[in-house]
Amino acid sequence: MRARRLAAVVVAATLALSACSAAGDDSPTAGPTSTAAPLIPEASELPTALPSDVLAGEMQDLAKLAERLAQQLPAQRRPEPVRITGSSTRWQPGAAYRGVFADPDIVRHDGRWYAYATNTSHLRLPVLTSRDLSTWTPLATSGGGRVDPIEVGGWVRSSDGGRDLWAPGVDKVGNGWTAAYAAPAGTQGGQRHNCIGLTRAPSPAGPFRPVGEPICYGEAQLGVIDPDVFVDEHGVPWLLWKFSGVVNRRPAGLFIRQLNADGTGFADGSQTRELLTLDRPWEGNTIENPSMVQFRGVTYLFYSGNSWERADYATGYAICAGPEGPCVRQNHGDPLLSTASTGRLGPGGASAFVDHKSLRVVYHAWDQVGRTRQLHVASLWQRDDGTLEVLDPG
């Protein structure tokens, strides 16, 4: 079975993607774009069930299960557990790193893994590389020097040279690589107001240069953050992100929109789709950090919920009819990775990826709450009904 996309109906709004204000203490504003489609559509009721031809966990009946088993799906390999090695908390090229590495994203190219994270060690885009998923060393120049492989857009307002970038998402789009990041574009109500920037590079090691306009939404005090670049099984690129919500009007949610073939902006005529909205008690006051992956015919959406500063932070997942949804929470709506189920404190910021014939997620967890968010790799198993179980938390 191939996951199919289901068109959703959205109500047109007057707000859209915008360029950010040039003043450092001004809030970004919203204005019209060439697509004339709003960045955040009007709120609408999200589906609570998937179409009948999409796997849906407990909703799957025996007849559909038998049909699935008869299909020629790619083989699934039982993944070996991954343990991150190294003890150095200093960002030192050539040394196995085990320090701060929050909100990780991961790609593979030419036999090497590249992992990206929220700023650390005075780097805007910290990058670790590995051959085996276990030993990770900082990206380095040919001479063994430190590398910060990204240049940020001129709209970024930072007192630290642009080094407060959050939760990057990277993938190969077209003939190059697109890296998306969230950064402050100003302030609103005394808080940092975030926009998303896009950059392009010839390789996953960079250098990433700014492209297009910043993606902003002035109606939300905190703006938009946590971008994820996802390329589906048909080669179509997408951008996912977290909308921070509007106090007393609309809760936080996860959204998606198609990118153009070059990964430099939204595709002409594209529209934003809402995938999930804050809903379950364990999610606390927010959901964030979307990550989409397709594995053996099923589209999965992973996300984090609750406060990242606490052990209550956790990772849930949904099965989707395709990149544009609808998406329905699985595991009875409970988190897939939690402190209780993994023994890791506050497992979140997860990014899903396919490792040969296995499905894994890379995520961060506290060594001690409030101290260091470290990298982990969890190994998953796809059950016959398409739902997932954790074989090893990493």
TrEMBL record:
Domain of life of the organism encoding this protein: Bacteria
Gene3D superfamilies in UniProt: Glycosyl hydrolase domain, family 43 (2.115.10.20)
Catalytic residues (positions): 103, 288
Any one GO molecular-function label of the UniProt entry: hydrolase activity, hydrolyzing O-glycosyl compounds
UniProt keyword annotations, A-Z: Glycosidase, Hydrolase, Signal
Site feature: Important for catalytic activity, responsible for pKa modulation of the active site Glu and correct orientation of both the proton donor and substrate: 226
PROSITE patterns associated with the record: PROKAR_LIPOPROTEIN
SUPFAM superfamilies: Arabinanase/levansucrase/invertase (SSF75005)
UniProt signal peptide: 1-23
Pathway, per record: Glycan metabolism; L-arabinan degradation
Gene Ontology BP, a term: carbohydrate metabolic process
Classification via InterPro entries: GH43_arabinanases, Glyco_hydro_43, Glyco_hydro_beta-prop_sf
Family membership noted in the UniProt record: Belongs to the glycosyl hydrolase 43 family.
Protein name per UniProt: Beta-xylosidase
Species name: Nocardioides kongjuensis
